[in-house]
TrEMBL record:
Organism of derivation: Cellvibrio fibrivorans
Keyword annotations: ATP-binding, Nucleotide-binding
GO MF assignments: ATP binding
PROSITE patterns: ABC_TRANSPORTER_1, ABC_TRANSPORTER_2
Superkingdom of the source species: Bacteria
Database matches in InterPro entries: AAA+_ATPase, ABC_transporter-like_ATP-bd, ABC_transporter-like_CS, ABC_transpr_LolD-like, P-loop_NTPase
Record lineage: Bacteria, Pseudomonadati, Pseudomonadota, Gammaproteobacteria, Cellvibrionales
Protein name (database record): Phosphonate transport system ATP-binding protein
Length: 272
């Protein structure tokens, strides 16, 4: 992490914890979305998570975020089993492991500022939550963060005034304001046009690198992130069928991962 890259008033993330899955399965009915998965993600690692639809990517992301419990096995954060954490510890983990999704769920009638501040509410005592509803708090850090995402001038506009790409930047700011140690991006650019999607992808990658946070970036757009990540993980039917450095990923391995899926694309160099 290099905090000097960030404006001084921005939240700087703490040390990222190691994330581990030990023989984890997650069933929906009789079907395993994640099937006996063993995985260790190192602090600060940048991981591209790929694979055909229904392969279990979103389920894995939700397990890592601690918002979904495994049916079997253990999810460990810094060596501690999520299932054995106190309510306060689990709240802390969730507040520092932020999911950025395709649908950003902003409150359209609230200002950009209020939407960003909402990212901090889980960390605040009740009196600060009350205060934040009455008058704007954290004006400077929110502004610095929005500036770094090139939307500083929109701080006081209703979120509904913004374009899709700008709204996704607000959602990124809402995730970053709590100084997360883990960013879990679940197809965050799927609803954006290609140019905007590329810009938003760059922002997420750059912010993760600058802050030293762990990033799991789930996307079909492998070409955009492949060589910016430390590691590529491929999930198919809840099983890890690819786990390699970007330089080691072969077309054969991608063919196997996407076999029978319409999502496989020639040369893997176009957005799908
Ligand atoms: P991906 O993100 O790779 O497309 P998901 O993790 O969303 O895959 O889904 C994996 C499997 O789990 C799919 O078969 C999907 O239908 C199933 N699944 C996911 N979420 C639910 C749910 N809430 N209820 C029932 N089945 C689900
Ligand atoms: Mg998904």
């Amino acid at each position: 992490m290099n905090p000097h890259i960030l404006p001084s008033s921005q939240p700087v993330s703490g040390q990222a914890p190691v994330l581990e899955l030990k023989a984890v399965s997650r069933y929906w009915g009789k079907r395993a979305a994640i099937n006996n998965l063993n995985l260790t993600i190192k602090p600060g690692e940048t991981v591209a998570l790929i694979g055909p639809s229904g392969g279990g990517k979103s389920t894995l992301i939700r397990l890592l975020a601690g918002v979904l419990k495994p049916t079997q096995g253990r999810v460990l954060v810094a060596g501690k089993d999520l299932a054995k954490m106190s309510a306060a510890e689990l709240r802390y983990h969730r507040a520092h492991s932020r999911i950025i999704e395709q649908t950003h769920l902003l409150v359209p009638q609230l200002s950009v500022h209020q939407n960003v501040v909402a990212g901090k509410l889980p960390l605040w005592p009740w009196h600060k939550v009350m205060a934040s509803a009455l008058w704007p708090v954290e004006k400077k850090p929110v502004h610095a963060l929005l500036e770094s995402l090139s939307i500083g001038e929109h701080q006081w506009r209703p979120a509904s005034d913004l374009s899709g790409g700008q709204m996704q930047r607000v959602a990124i700011a809402r995730a970053l304001i709590s100084a997360p140690t883990t960013l879990l991006a679940d197809e965050p650019t799927a609803s954006l046009d290609p140019a905007t999607a590329r810009a938003v992808t760059e922002i997420i990658l750059n912010q993760a690198k600058e802050r030293g946070v762990t990033l799991v970036f789930c996307t079909h757009w492998l070409d955009a992130i492949m060589h910016r990540c430390d590691r590529i993980i491929g999930l198919r039917e809840g099983t890890l069928v690819l786990d390699a450095k970007p330089s080691e990923v072969t077309q054969d391995a991608l063919n196997l991962l996407y076999q029978g899926s319409e999502e496989l694309h020639e040369g893997n160099n176009e957005r799908i």
